[in-house]
Every structure is written in structure tokens, then in C-alpha cells.
Amino acid sequence: MKAAPWLLVPPGGIEAGRLVALEAGEARHVTAALRLGVGDAVVLADGRGTTASAVLRTASRARVEAEVVELRVDAPPAHGEVAIALGLLDGRAMDWAVQKCVEVGAGRLIPLLAERSQTSRRETTRRSDHWRRISLQAIKQCRRSWVMEIDAVVSPAELVEQTRAECGVVADRAGAGAAALRPAPERVLAVGPEGGFSAAEEGLFAAAGWQRLNLGPHVLRAETAAVVGAAVLVGREADGRPAGA
């Protein structure tokens, strides 16, 4: 049997036994793309830990409503969060990285304004809302109850300042494998933009005591490195070990 599709609702909008009216974009998705009708099962999700099995009671072009049947509330991740600090990339590459980091389970994405980033802080701030929408939409594909947060843009110096030294990791082909990472309560993985980090930025991470993580024998595109790194660190957490243990 095909799994019920996930649909998004605003936080606080899911209550047991009530009818939930979908916003216009999700409603169009139901009737035009999914071609669902009255009586079809769906899952409602708010991206803040609440999901619900529901049944469509109204499904017209003008209005789509779902009745909540069974409610579930997942607690936020308690520990071991993996954050990806990604040097800013061109539009499509950055969008892809955001989407795939959601799918592999990263908790946060930190837009990193490095020396070789081909954008400005002002432009990045404007694009942040776009990445938040991508992050929210992506939870429907991978069926996770908590959205990946998109942090405010920072420079490498700001990133180092706000990150505990034992938590910081830099993606580096000269680094060690994940098994060699020292224990830490969470991980912040820094991935350089196209062209990598500058010598000054590399020195900044080294002076702060950040560890180096090798992501395999091949040269990866920045967006690929971000997703592979997230998968490696999240996978360790899923095995029941703190990231880096």
C-alpha cells in the first residue's frame, strides 16, 4: 500500500479531532499534483515536531480540509546535533545542498560568507527565507517531523567565535576519518565554497583547534561535501554514539 503523502500546516494548527484547512499552495498540491479526493489519507506536519494522520473531508479547487485522526508529538533532538556551515554557493548548488542536508538529517545549516564566496551578506540574508522554504518542503520527502533550521549568515571568524572548539570540524582531504574525531556534544562541520577556504581562513580554524575530517579519496564539489559530511556525522549519531565518539 502506498504511504499517505505528507502535507504542511502552520505550527500550532494541528489538534486532535479538528478540521484543518490547508494553505493555498498545499491545497493546490493536493488537488492538482497528487489528485487526492475526499476520504483519502494524508499526514499533516508542522515542522516543529507535530505530525498527524488525517483524512480529507473537503477537496475542491477552492478549499481543502483534513480531519485529524491521530496525533503524534516528537521531542526536539536532545543532543548530538549536526550543523553544516557551508561556504555560500551559486543558487542551484546551494538550494540542492539545503534540500539534501534535510534528507540526511542535519539539524542546522549555517550560511558561511567566506572570502571566496561569490555573494554578499546582504544578498545572502535575502536568500535565507528561500532556503527556509526549501528546508520546510523537504521534510515531506524524507518524512522528518522537525525542520532543519537555517541560521543567520556568518563569517568564518564569527563561526569560530560562536562554536566550542571541541565541536568544530573542517572538511579536508588531508584530515582523518570520522572514527578519529574526539568526542563532542554536537558537531559543526565547515565546508568551504567553490575554491575552498583561503589560507587565512584555514589558519583561523587551525588556531581554534578545529579537527579535520576526510570525506573520501575523491575531490568533491562543495555541495556534495556538505551532504556527504552531514550523512557521515548523522550516521554516527544514529548508531547510538555521540558525534565523534
Low-confidence stretches: 241-245
Net shape: elongated
**Structural domain tally:** 2
Give a quick account of the main beta sheet: strands, pairing sense, barrel closure. 6 strands, parallel
Known CATH architecture of the largest domain: 3-Layer(aba) Sandwich
CATH class of the largest domain: Alpha Beta
Rounded mean pLDDT is 92
* CATH level 3 topology of the largest domain: Alpha/beta knot
Beta-strand proportion? 15-25%
Helix content: 25-40%
The assigned structural class equals alpha/beta
CA-atom Rg in angstroms:
20 Å
Our count of helices gives: 6
SSE pattern, N- to C-terminal: EEHEEEEHEHEHEEHEH
Number of strands: 11
Report how far apart the termini are.
Answer: 39 Å
Within the largest sheet, what's the order of strands? 8-7-6-10-9-11
- CATH homologous superfamily (4th level) name of the largest domain: SPOUT methyltransferase, trefoil knot domain
Q: Summary?
A:
Helices cover 32% and strands 25% of the residues. The protein has 245 residues and is α/β, with parallel strands linked by helices.
Model description:
The protein is elongated. The strands form two sheets. The protein has a six-stranded parallel β-sheet with strand order 8-7-6-10-9-11, sandwiched between helices. A five-stranded mixed β-sheet has the order 1-3-4-5-2. 38% of the residues are buried. It folds into two domains: 6-73, Ribosomal Protein L25, Chain P (Beta Barrel); 82-238, 3-Layer(aba) Sandwich (Alpha/beta knot), CATH 3.40.1280. It has six helices and eleven strands. It has 245 residues and is of the alpha/beta class. β4 and β5 form a beta hairpin. Residues 241-245 have low confidence and may be disordered.
